[in-house]
Design a protein that fits this description.
hpI Integrase, Chain A; 3 strands; 299 residues; 2 domains; mainly alpha
Length: 299
């Protein structure tokens, strides 16, 4: 296993012992942690825990779910991982706890169902949201889909970062102070300008945030929890109640790849460190296309 990960875990184990956690509790935490680092070793190039983000933790939790872990077991795994990252944050080894960006499951409810929207479902989504008349909700959906940005990146975008001519969002802060560039479509550009104009017309003060909090006395961006709620609302409109913010990334990555974009370019847009992660977890192959190609060579 990654030597830095093991070193940090051993320090955390000493900390748990000094805090007089029971041997049974420490053993349970260690068991969850071992499963987690084995998954990271096998699927994410044995990265150190300080390099892991919420996407990779989400993939681990989804894997656990597919292996039959119920909600109670998933929540315990999440608590174990979160407690470890809280320790690392307290010691100033990491800047944030990636578990803060992952929703906890409700009792006896699946943690998450990975959803890959089809082009037809995306078209339906646009239609339903236009009929609904909520331009800001439409902007959220199309911005998230087009940029394939993580939910915390979406919430942090400010108007001053947007270059409308080049259709990019510059210097977007992600996990562990990583700075990325987001790329958006012509259609999203039109929506951004429309929303900006509507707010100016209404005199709405968004304090410079593209997606801002409506809470009284709040000058900050919208919370991740609110974005999750918006996503679920959109999912209900198109008959996909399991829709989750992370699904925008899965969906757009798959649509782009199946339309002919190279895996390397899709991976770059997702801000992945390697194409292995993109191919293994983000691309759902077009089976009808594979079948049609097979038919060409059928004997």
């Amino acid at each position: 296993m990654n030597p830095e990960t093991i070193k940090l875990w051993n320090k955390y184990r000493i900390d748990m012992t000094l805090r007089e956690l029971s041997p049974k509790t420490i053993a349970a935490y260690e068991n969850d942690f071992q499963h987690f680092v084995i998954f990271i070793h096998d699927n994410f190039g044995n990265k150190s825990v300080v390099e892991i983000d919420e996407d990779e933790i989400t993939e681990f939790l989804f894997y656990c779910r597919t292996e039959g872990n119920n909600s109670r077991r998933i929540k315990r795994r999440m608590s174990s991982i979160s407690a470890f990252y809280k320790y690392l944050r307290k010691k100033r080894i990491v800047g944030e706890n990636p578990m803060e960006f992952i929703d906890r499951p409700k009792k006896d409810v699946d943690i998450m169902t990975q959803t890959y929207l089809t082009q037809e479902q995306v078209d339906l989504l646009k239609l339903k949201l236009r009929e609904h008349g909520d331009t800001e909700l439409l902007l959220y959906a199309m911005f998230s889909l087009s940029t394939m940005a993580r939910v915390n990146a979406v919430s942090s975008v400010r108007w001053e970062q947007i270059d409308f001519d080049s259709r990019i969002v510059k210097d977007v802060l992600e996990k562990e102070a990583k700075v990325v560039t987001l790329y958006f479509s012509e259609g999203v550009k039109e929506l951004l300008l429309k929303v900006k104009a509507l707010r100016e017309e209404r005199g709405a003060n968004d304090n410079g945030w593209v997606f801002y909090s409506r809470l009284e006395k709040s000058n900050g961006p919208v919370s991740n929890g609110t974005l999750n709620a918006w996503c679920k609302k959109i999912g209900q409109m198109i008959g996909v109640p399991t829709l989750h913010p992370h699904d925008w990334r899965h969906t757009m990555a798959t649509l782009l790849k199946n339309k002919g974009m190279s895996l390397e370019d899709v991976s770059a847009l997702l801000n992945h460190a390697s194409t292995d992660v993109t191919k293994k977890f983000y691309i759902r192959e077009d089976r009808s296309k594979i079948q049609a190609e097979k038919d060409r060579f059928e004997i």
